[in-house]
Amino acid sequence: MPADRRAAISMSLGVAAAVALYGISFGALAVASGLDVWQAQVLSLFMFSGGSQFALIGLIAAGAPGITSVLVAGLLGVRNGLYSLRTAPLVGKGFFRRLIAGQLTIDESTAVALAQPTQASSRVGFWVTGIGIYIGWNVMTFLGAILGDALGDVSAFGLDAAAAAAFVGLLWPRLTAREPVVVAVIAAVVTAVAIPFAPTGVPVLLAALAAFAFAVVKERTAK
Amino acid sequence: MTMWETILIGSAVVAALKFVGFVLPASVSGSPRVQRISDVVTIGLLASLVVIQTLAVGNALVFDSRSVAVIVAGVLLWKRVPFIIVILVAAGVAAGLRATGLLS
Question: Which of B59, B70, B92 is the closest to A168 by Cβ?
Answer without folding.
Answer: B70
